[in-house]
Each structure stands twice: as structure tokens, then as C-alpha cells.
Write a structure and sequence with these properties.
With 651 residues, this protein is α/β, with parallel strands linked by helices. The chain folds into three domains: 18-169 and 220-392, TIM Barrel (Alpha-Beta Barrel); 405-601, Class I glutamine amidotransferase (GATase) domain (Rossmann fold, 3-Layer(aba) Sandwich), CATH 3.40.50.880; 614-649, no CATH class. The strands form six sheets. The chain has a nine-stranded parallel beta sheet with strand order 5-4-3-2-1-9-8-7-6. The protein has a seven-stranded mixed beta sheet with strand order 11-10-12-13-20-19-18, sandwiched between helices. α14 packs across α17. The chain is globular. The N and C termini lie close together (11 Å).
């Protein structure tokens, strides 16, 4: 049995699945607070996040503190058996900060100074912001570090969500210092950045700027280093607050909420080891035809960042959000089905934004556990039903998901791929990831995501949908995996450049050429809307290649298009394993056919006993089946009704 004890860093004092959401009592008269707590108990809430955007309420002017209202909130929660995920409020600086310290304002790539009135409206490199954030964090840690209601410290909120990059003079100075640490000296930097191109050679550190908007694309290596720097600056801000809290409150775990679905600009592989428990915010992309698959993908990625350990769903919505182009409401049963899908894929906490729907501000039309319509609404009834159901699933806590295959995911490669002047504007990192993930989901296989340099030997199949930037270490790791008996599936435009966006060697696919046994003589991006066909009838678009087989064998060929008659899909026996290469973008049906061919060779089952619309995930000793279809289905001898979730304990 794989059942484990919950992490020692799971919210302190909780012996159940965490259930609740963001609570903003400061938005309501104090007489409402008692009703809030009474209704929380009715709904089964045991954890709420408090204080996330309360800086101006806690420190209305610099150095003047008004903690008394928060004292009363925490005492009320504690008296009613509800734990607090207490936040540092540093994601929303008060107006006094940028008024007194204008250098703390954010400046965008075009040089515009951005204003107040929103959240995260600060420069992440600002010394004034860092000092003020450290001060309020220390005040909170000293006052509440031993408070019996506090189960978890919630640092900041959604780092880099809307201020991933700042181009102000302070950031320029910090960027130069970061570059000196990374490269050591100017000759090394000039070599790494290829500054002989376009007369960019630097002779003084002071000459280097952030990659401001320019008449042409800015040096891609410079842009990549700037993206790395910005991710690291936000991480430095997190560490500063975390370390203050650990020093003052060592028994309380510390985390921050990732936003894996929406944040391209944070390298969460570097962040994951810095938090005591991994937490993620996920909002359903409701206009998609398959939002439940994207949800599953983000949950699998979150679990993978946690190293397979249980994690926290820190935010999701009971129904519609307020910031998508069309904020589609969830229909009956979706609230529970979405929540339990996260639980199936490793979450031990199900929290929402928000507890009580706001009446003012930018998020007043965001759904809540307690909607504007109050306790007479369907949403409220479903919230209380879910609370009751979660209370009966405590035995899931601490169990770990059993994954079948791995997909390689790399934020730096994502950044590099989508810079300017690539062979096609249709190259999109997440599009390829999601295409392969969807095919594996429909094959009823559970996915772990892995860094390209991570240990891979436990997976019978590793898929590389997009790895344009491939380090020498990553290439060596993939080669060792195949040599050791693994099956590797690689998609086009992978292995092309190194960490500085410099082309590998003298032939593509560069770092993966020997492993795959092919040479790409020329990229053949297709015209918009153009479709081509492969020899098994697969339709493809976007991309083709003039592919020369060196030591591989041809599996499928192009029957038309610019590469007609040439290899399209190849396979190479390499050591004890096999490396497959797909040089085009097959349609969904073609990709599923290809996987049906590869899976048995990798020792993986092709399941025909479960409908495609039924999601089946193992958290041994439990199997969780989620029926997204319109008809009942049978899983493990149990009937799963349409739209329902069934938890089955294995014999």
C-alpha cells in the first residue's frame, strides 16, 4: 500500500482535507463576521486565507499599525475551530508606498510608468518595496507567529502574476549585478550572448540595459537572461519574507500560491523546493471544449512540482470568474467535479477564491462560496454538499498518485521558443504540450511532468512535445534514459539551441541528432491553413521537415506537401530502448493512432474497457473515476453515473 502520513509541513493542526477559501472580513461590517463563521461551520470549512490584500488596513500610514481588527478575526476563527492561512499582504502595496517612494513604481518595456489602483503595482527590484515588505512581514510574524489559529503562512499572492518584468533604472542596475554573478566577466558574457552580431559587444557593465522595446528584436540571449533574472528577483522577494517568518514562527509552514495555468514567466522548478508545501491557483478555462483536460494537466504539473507529495489547491472558483473574455458559469455538479478532480490528482486541500462575494472592487462579479444571493442559491447548496463529501474522504490524505508516463516541461525552453523571428508564428509551447497530454489523457494514462535533467528511469515512456532549448546535460540525460531501456517520443523543433539560444553543432536537431538518428536539412513551416497528409492517412499542419534518416528507420512518410515522399515519423533502437521522432504536427486522431502504436511497445496498456470521457486516476489504495460524459460507465465493477465522481477502494 502506498498510503503515507501527511507531510509534516501540511497546515498545522489540520487532521482532515483542508476546505475553505479566501476570506476578506475587512470588506464587511464587523457584525457580519459572526454570520460568516456560523456559515463556514455549516459548510464544513476548516481553513481560510486571511489578510492577502490588507496592507493598507494593517499599516494605513508608514509605521502606524492597526492590528486590532485582525486580532478579533483570528480569535473568532479560533473559537469556532477554523484555522487560518495567514498572508503577508505584500502583493498589494498601500498608496503611501508609491507616493512616498516613486522609484518603487513599475515601468514597462516601452518606458511607461504604471499607476496605482490595482495590485502588484510595484517594481520587484525596489529597495524601498523590499524594506517595507520586510517590515510588515516582521510585524505580522512577531504578533501572530504563535497564535493558535495560524496553521500556515501565505507569503504574498501569485508572484509575477501581473508584474513579471520591470524595466526601470533600479532593475537595470540589479540586472547587471545578476549578470556579473552568472557570467563572471564581460568576455564570457559577450561570448554567451553572441555580441559580435549587430555590433553589440560590451566593454563596460554600465552599457548593459534590460531588453527595452527596440526597432528590431533584441538579442535573444539577452532576453533569456533577463527573464531568468526577473524570475529570480521574485524568488528573492519570497525568500526574504519566508526567512523572516521561519525565524519568528518556526513551527508554522510557509508557502505561496503558484499560478501554473497562467504564469509563463516564473520558473517553478526553481521555486518548488523553496516552499514547505506546494500550492497552486487554478481557474477553469471555461470557453474551451475540454476544460477538464486542461485542469487535469495543471493538477499533474502541480503534483510533479511537489515531487509527488500532496499539495494544496489554494484557489479555484465555485462558478464563473470575472476576468476571462466571457465568464462562463459552471453548471450543476461542476463545482464538485472540478474540486474532486484536483483531489484525485494529489491535492489534500480544496480552497476557493472567495468565501463571500464582494460588493465592490474589480472582482465583485467573481463567484464565491457564499454568493450575492446568499444561502438560498444552488451554489451555496453545492458548497455545503462538497464540504460534507470531503469530510468523508479523509483516508485519501497523504496518499500519492500513481503515474504511468512522463512529459518533459521546461519554462526556459518555453521562453526561448516564443521569442521573435522563429521559423513560424504557429510555434507555441503549451499547444504542443497540451496536444500530447490530451492524447495520453484519452488513453487513460496519468502523467508526471519532469524537468529535462531529472531522473527518468522509472517511466516506461517519456514524451518531449517541445524542447527547443536543450542543454547538453538534458541531451545526455535523455540519451541515458533511452540507452537504459526507456521509450522516448520527441516532437519537432526540439534540441535546436543551448541555454544561450545558440544553435547546437552544424546540423539539426542538434543536441538530439545522434539519439534520434536523423538530420533535419531544412525546416518547412507551412502556410496558414495548409494541410498535408502522412502515409497512414493522418492529416497534419503547421510544420514539416526535410528529414534525412541516418541510423533510424522510417515509420511514416509525407504523401504530399513540401516534403512529399520523405520521412515524417522515425524510430531508432538505441541501447536498450527506442527513440521516436515526429517531424510534423499531426491532428488529434493521428496522434492517438501513433500513441496506440507506441504504448504496447513501451509496455503500457491500451484500454478499451473505459469510455474516453471517463477520467481514472489511482491514489493507492483508491481509484477515483470521474465521468465527464453523458452516459453512465463502469469502472472496476462500479457504475459511475454521468457527471459523477466515484472513489473506489482497491481490494
Amino acid at each position: 500500500m502506498d498510503q503515507l502520513q501527511p507531510s509534516p509541513w501540511f497546515p498545522r493542526g489540520l487532521d482532515a482535507i483542508a476546505y475553505g477559501g479566501d476570506y476578506a472580513p475587512e470588506q464587511w461590517p464587523e457584525e457580519v463576521w459572526a454570520e460568516d463563521v456560523r456559515l463556514m461551520r455549516q459548510a464544513g470549512v476548516n481553513l481560510v486565507s486571511v489578510g492577502i490584500f490588507s496592507w493598507a488596513m494593517l499599516e494605513p500610514t508608514e509605521g502606524q499599525y492597526t492590528f486590532e481588527w485582525l486580532d478579533r478575526v483570528l480569535e473568532l476563527l479560533h473559537a469556532n475551530g477554523i484555522r487560518a492561512d495567514l498572508a503577508t499582504p505584500t502583493a498589494a502595496p498601500p498608496p503611501w508606498l508609491t507616493y512616498r517612494y516613486p522609484d518603487a513604481r513599475l515601468i514597462d518595456r516601452e518606458g511607461h510608468v504604471l499607476g496605482q489602483g490595482g495590485r502588484q503595482s510595484f517594481c520587484p527590484s525596489s529597495a524601498e518595496y523590499a524594506r517595507a515588505a520586510a517590515t510588515i512581514t516582521e510585524q505580522l510574524g512577531r504578533r501572530y507567529g504563535e497564535h493558535p489559529a495560524v496553521a500556515l503562512w501565505h507569503v504574498h499572492n501569485e508572484y509575477a502574476g501581473v508584474n513579471p518584468h520591470c524595466y526601470c533604472p533600479g532593475c537595470a542596475e540589479a540586472f547587471r549585478g545578476w549578470l556579473q554573478d552568472r557570467h563572471g566577466d564581460l568576455p564570457t558574457l559577450n561570448a554567451a550572448w553572441g555580441t559580435t552580431f549587430w555590433s553589440q559587444r560590451y566593454s563596460d557593465w554600465a552599457e548593459i540595459e534590460p531588453p527595452h522595446a527596440a526597432p528590431t528584436p533584441v538579442n535573444p540571449a539577452q532576453q533569456l537572461d533577463f527573464f531568468r533574472f526577473c524570475s529570480d528577483v521574485h524568488l528573492e522577494n519570497f525568500r526574504r519574507e519566508r526567512d523572516i517568518l521561519r525565524g519568528l514562527s518556526p513551527e508554522v509552514p510557509v508557502t505561496t500560491n503558484f499560478m501554473i495555468a497562467n504564469c509563463k514567466w516564473v520558473d517553478y522548478w526553481k521555486w518548488a523546493g523553496e516552499v514547505d508545501v506546494v500550492a497552486n491557483d487554478h481557474y477553469l478555462q471555461a470557453e474551451r471544449d475540454d476544460p477538464h483536460i486542461e485542469l487535469a494537466m495543471c493538477a499533474d504539473l502541480t503534483r510533479s512540482l511537489a515531487g509527488g507529495a500532496p499539495w494544496m489547491l489554494m484557489e479555484h472558483s465555485t462558478s464563473a470568474v470575472n476576468w476571462q473574455p466571457r465568464n462562463i458559469a459552471k453548471r450543476r455538479g461542476e463545482l464538485a467535479r472540478n474540486s474532486l478532480a484536483h483531489l484525485a490528482r494529489g491535492a489534500d486541500a480544496v480552497l476557493f477564491f472567495q468565501w463571500r462575494a464582494s460588493r465592490f472592487g474589480a472582482e465583485k462579479f467573481h463567484s464565491a462560496m457564499l454568493p450575492h444571493g446568499g444561502t438560498s442559491t444552488r451554489i451555496w447548496r453545492e458548497v455545503t454538499e462538497l464540504g460534507g463529501r470531503l469530510a468523508g474522504l479523509d483516508r485519501l490524505r497523504g496518499t500519492r498518485v500513481k503515474a504511468d508516463v512522463a512529459i518533459v516541461w521546461d519554462w526556459e525552453s518555453w521562453w526561448a521558443l516564443e521569442l521573435e523571428w522563429r521559423p513560424s508564428v504557429d510555434l507555441a509551447y503549451r499547444e504542443r504540450i497540451e496536444a500530447y497530454y490530451t492524447a495520453l489523457w484519452k488513453a487513460h494514462l496519468t502523467v508526471d511532468f519532469v524537468h529535462p535533467e531529472a531522473a527518468l528511469s522509472r517511466y516506461p515512456l517519456v514524451v518531449v512535445p517541445s524542447l527547443y532549448l536543450t542543454t547538453a546535460a538534458a541531451a545526455k540525460n535523455l540519451d541515458a534514459y533511452v540507452t537504459g531501456g526507456g521509450t522516448l517520443l520527441v516532437s519537432y523543433f526540439s534540441g535546436i539551441v543551448d541555454a544561450n539560444d545558440t544553435v547546437h553543432g552544424d546540423a539539426h536537431p542538434g543536441a538530439l541528432r545522434d539519439l534520434l538518428g536523423v538530420t533535419v536539412e531544412e525546416f518547412l513551416p507551412l502556410r496558414q491553413g495548409r494541410h498535408i497528409e502522412l502515409s497512414d492517412g493522418t492529416a497534419a499542419d503547421v510544420w514539416a521537415e526535410d528529414l534525412v534518416v541516418d541510423t533510424a528507420e522510417v515509420v511514416l512518410t509525407y504523401t504530399d506537401g513540401p516534403a512529399a515522399g520523405g520521412p515524417a515519423v522515425t524510430r531508432k533502437a538505441h541501447g536498450g530502448g527506442t527513440a521516436w521522432y515526429v517531424s510534423t504536427r499531426p491532428d488529434a486522431a493521428g496522434l492517438e493512432r501513433l500513441l496506440a502504436r507506441i504504448l504496447p511497445q513501451a509496455g503500457l496498456p491500451v484500454r478499451h474497457d473505459v469510455p474516453e470521457t471517463v477520467e481514472v486516476v489511482r491514489r493507492p489504495p483508491f481509484v477515483i473515476a470521474i465521468n465527464h460524459g453523458e452516459h453512465a460507465a463502469e469502472v472496476g465493477g462500479r457504475v459511475v453515473e454521468a457527471g459523477a465522481v466515484t472513489v473506489i477502494e482497491e481490494a
